[in-house]
Specification:
Length: 126
Amino acid sequence: MSHMVPKKFEKMCKKIFKFNRKIRYVAVLDKNGRVVSGGMRRGIKALEPKEEELRLMAHIVSESTGRETWNTYFGKTIYTIIKREYVTLMVFHQNKRLVFITSEPGFDIHEIPDVREILVEHMEMQ
């Protein structure tokens, strides 16, 4: 794998953090749920214990691949939003990768198309 890819992802993650202060976490995941690039915003503490992180990523990936069954009927999933009490979870499907983003509950979901625009701009070359 070329070294250009992670650089491009790093730049994208920074741009997403800059886009909205309420974004807590941005990560590009491979198909096994491993973080290829990104992570927690500096100075922000994760809500889940460190030992749960891998399980959370595995869950995100398995849920996303499980949804593929419905592609024939509904088309591909573009993104998924899970609004919880303490955090909003967003999963974007981008060129065989997943981009997992979390934000503070006050994040305006009307800004999701703008976030997706940043992803598309940085990931379409993959």
